[in-house]
Specification:
Chain lengths: 74, 148
C-alpha cells in the first residue's frame, strides 16, 4: 500500500511536468500559427490540453492519499 | 484438541466461561467440562460454537483449517486493491505520459495522429482524454471495493 501511494504520487508529479511542457509547446505553436499561418483560434486554446492532464493528476493524487491512509491504518 | 481450541478461542475473544455459556444457552459447568476435555459438545452445540467464534467446523474440530474469522478474511480480501483497476489506471496514466512526450519530441508523428482522427475533435485531445478516462475508470474500480 505504501509503495502504491509513492508510485501514484510520483505519477502525479510526472503528469504535472508533462502537462506544463505540452501546454507551453502548444501555446508557442499556436502563437506562431496565428502570426504566420493565419490560425483563427486564440493562443489560449492551448490550455485545453491541460484538461486531461488535470484529470489524471487529480486521479493520481486521490489514489496516493487513499493508499497512504490505508497503509497507515494497516 | 477441541478442548484446547475452545479455550484458545475464548481467551482470544476475551470472554469468561459464564459469558460463553450464556451466549450458547448452556451452563458454565458444561463449558468448563468441554474445555477440560471431560466431555464433548453435541453437534448442534458445535455448530453454535463455530458460529459464535466465526470459525469453520473443520478448524474447530480438527484444527487443520484456517481459524481466521471469516469476517476478517473478507476484510483482508476487500482491502486488496483490484488488479484490473490498478492496471487500467496505470495504463491510462502511461498513455497520457507517452503521448505528452510524443507531442513534445516528435511533433510530426503527433500531427499525423491528429489528422487521422475521423472526429471533429482533435485526435491528440481524444487520445489524452482516453488516457484520462482510463485512469478515472481504474480509480473508480480501486475505490469501489474499499471498506470503512
Amino acid at each position: 500500500m505504501k509503495k502504491l501511494s509513492v508510485v501514484f504520487a510520483i505519477l502525479a508529479v510526472l503528469l504535472s511536468d508533462v502537462m506544463c511542457a505540452v501546454v507551453a509547446y502548444s501555446y508557442c505553436n499556436m502563437q506562431w500559427g496565428i502570426k504566420y499561418m493565419g490560425f483563427s483560434a486564440p493562443a489560449g486554446a492551448a490550455f485545453l490540453y491541460a484538461i486531461p492532464f488535470c484529470i489524471g493528476i487529480a486521479v493520481c493524487a486521490a489514489l496516493s492519499l487513499f493508499f497512504r491512509s490505508r497503509a497507515q491504518r494497516a | 484438541m477441541l478442548s484446547e481450541r475452545l479455550y484458545t478461542l475464548r481467551k482470544k475473544r476475551g470472554i469468561s466461561q459464564e459469558q460463553l455459556a450464556e451466549a450458547l444457552g448452556v451452563s458454565r459447568q458444561s463449558v468448563s467440562k468441554w474445555e477440560s476435555g471431560a466431555s464433548t459438545p453435541e453437534s448442534d452445540r458445535l455448530i453454535a460454537i463455530s458460529e459464535y467464534f466465526d470459525v469453520s467446523l473443520d478448524a474447530l474440530l480438527r484444527g487443520t483449517g484456517d481459524d481466521t474469522p471469516t469476517e476478517a478474511k473478507q476484510t483482508m480480501a476487500e482491502q486488496r486493491p483490484s488488479v484490473a483497476g490498478l492496471v487500467l489506471c496505470l495504463a491510462g496514466v502511461a498513455l497520457m505520459l507517452a503521448f505528452g512526450l510524443l507531442m513534445l519530441l516528435f511533433p510530426a508523428a503527433s500531427e499525423q495522429i491528429a489528422d487521422s482522427s475521423a472526429v471533429t475533435l482533435d485526435g491528440r485531445g481524444l487520445i489524452l482524454l482516453l488516457g484520462a478516462a482510463a485512469a478515472a475508470a481504474g480509480a473508480v474500480m480501486l475505490l469501489k471495493n474499499r471498506k470503512g
